[in-house]
Amino acid sequence: MLPPKHLAIAVTLLFSGIGVVADYFLKVASTRENPWKNWEFFLGLVLYASTAFGWLFVMQHLKLAAVGILYTVAMLILLALVGYFGFGESLSKREWLGLIFAIASVLLMVTEKD
Fold it and tell me: What is the pLDDT of residues 14-62, one digit of tens each?
């Protein structure tokens, strides 16, 4: 079994993935004539809401700043991949540099001693 801190990190990464799937469905919903009244919107909403219970566990074991950075960077990377592969979007050189700096921020946070 993983130590609680490592499990909390894993759960945070899992929730990032769930959030990206929710964002995918919300993006699809936003292209519909009535974005508030379709199954994609409701699925995105349910996916986001489903993570609320697990966040309580995560926040018991990690600093809020660490959770925020880890979650945000994972979301940035995953959403960039979904945008590229799912919607044909591309990243500029400046955006690539931003992703690199975001990854560096995670490395700085996880190497900090408690």
Answer: 988 998 899 999 999 999 999 999 999 999 999 989 888 888 889 998 8
pLDDT (tens digit, 9 = 90+) per residue, 60-93?
Answer: 988 888 888 888 888 888 888 888 888 888 889 9
Q: How many Å apart are CA 89 and CA 7, to the nearest integer?
A: 33
Under DSSP, the state recorded for 33 is: S
* SS3 state of residue 37: coil
- Token output for 31: 């292209």
Residues 6+ apart with CB under 8 A from 41: 25, 26, 29, 32, 35
Q: Which residues contact 45 (CB under 8 A, 6 or more apart)?
A: 22
Taking every pair of Cα atoms in the chain, the longest distance, rounded to a whole number of angstroms, is 51
End-to-end, the C-alpha distance of the chain in Å comes to 21
